[in-house]
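Task: sequence design from structure.
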């Protein structure tokens, strides 16, 4: 039985006893009180049966006893109530302590789980660190091996030579000893001081390295060469942008007449032949049949321009000329070619000079031989 239920039963019994005590003190002389053992008279009923001389004293004593009993019962109930309160306080304290202990146990379990997880993480990290250290050691060993291999390969692709050779392009053979790794088509550079020859390996055999030098710097003959692998010569880069125009220079002296600067060989001609001044101020032609000549594109009438025709075998066939004022030996003019006094040769070269000062409106001519 729990403490709380026991206190409830005791308090209920005391309350019953207190009620009976009240009925015993304050009951009438005709009332009786029924209890477990039977009926008992009330105080008034008991006093009524006493002799008159002792009724008052007896009644007084009975009343005092009854009141004392009532007071004791009330005090007992108060004590029980206080005990119940303290019991409840103890119960609450116990429940609170139990709850606090439960919460503490839960927190402790959580901390324990966290600690276990942290320990597992530490173990995993330790394993990872160990693996990383192992990998680092392996990488270090591999790097060391690679460095040794690279050093050996670098040694095998470089050499020195005391062969006396002159700087220049073409085939060059160096004595460099055996044990090297040069192969055909590799590009190498041979350096002597500030001088060098760059080219493609032709062959390496019996300690002799032969290259085809294509790029050189410096000049002279040297016998102390350092040879190493080099990159192939790259293609020429694109032309850069045109720079800004420089300042105007001083005016030069007058040059030769520019009217004779262009030359045109018309080859074999016959029939209608057009002579274009713009295509050449000196034009050569070999006549192979009857020919009709015309001249076009004389420059403007603000300049004097001259056209020289180099005519081969011009006298062998009939030539019809455009309107030309042929200058005679006395300074007169004729527009009939045959009357100019100098016929063309049937087998040979004649020079016919034509000129104008008005853009071709008036043309003058002269056969020069």
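Answer:
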């Amino acid at each position: 039985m729990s403490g709380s239920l026991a206190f409830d039963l005791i308090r209920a019994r005391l309350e019953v006893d207190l009620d009976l005590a009240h009925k015993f003190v304050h009951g009438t002389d005709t009332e009786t009180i029924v209890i477990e053992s039977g009926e008992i008279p009330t105080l008034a009923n008991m006093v009524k049966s006493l002799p008159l001389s002792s009724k008052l004293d007896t009644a007084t004593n009975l009343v005092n006893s009854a009141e004392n009993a009532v007071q004791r019962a009330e005090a007992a109930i108060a004590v029980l109530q206080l005990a119940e309160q303290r019991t409840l306080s103890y119960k609450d304290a116990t429940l609170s302590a139990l709850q606090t202990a439960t919460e503490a146990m839960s927190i402790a379990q959580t901390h324990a789980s966290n600690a276990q997880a942290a320990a597992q993480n530490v173990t995993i990290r330790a394993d990872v660190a160990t693996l990383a250290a192992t990998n680092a050691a392996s990488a270090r060993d591999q790097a060391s091996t690679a460095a040794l291999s690279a050093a050996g390969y670098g040694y095998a692709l470089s050499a020195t030579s005391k062969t006396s050779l002159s700087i220049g392009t073409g085939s060059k053979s160096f004595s460099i000893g055996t044990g090297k790794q040069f192969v055909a088509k590799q590009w190498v550079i041979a350096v002597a001081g500030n001088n060098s020859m760059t080219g493609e390996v032709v062959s390496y055999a019996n300690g002799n390295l032969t290259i085809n030098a294509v790029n050189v710097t410096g000049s002279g003959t040297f016998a102390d060469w350092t040879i190493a692998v080099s990159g192939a010569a790259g293609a020429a880069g694109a032309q850069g942008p045109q720079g800004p125009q420089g300042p105007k220079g001083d005016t030069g002296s007058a040059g030769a007449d520019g009217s004779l600067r262009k030359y045109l060989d018309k080859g074999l001609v016959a029939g209608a032949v057009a002579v274009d001044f713009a295509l050449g101020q000196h034009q050569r032609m070999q006549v192979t049949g009857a020919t009709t000549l015309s001249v076009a594109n004389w420059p403007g009438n603000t300049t004097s321009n001259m056209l020289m025709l180099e005519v081969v075998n011009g006298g062998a066939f009939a030539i019809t000329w455009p309107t030309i004022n042929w200058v005679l030996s006395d300074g007169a003019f004729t527009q009939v070619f045959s009357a100019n006094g100098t016929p063309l040769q049937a087998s040979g070269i004649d020079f016919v000079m034509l000129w104008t000062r008005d853009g071709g409106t008036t043309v003058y001519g002269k056969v020069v031989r």
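The CA atoms of residues 234 and 245 lie 31 Å apart.
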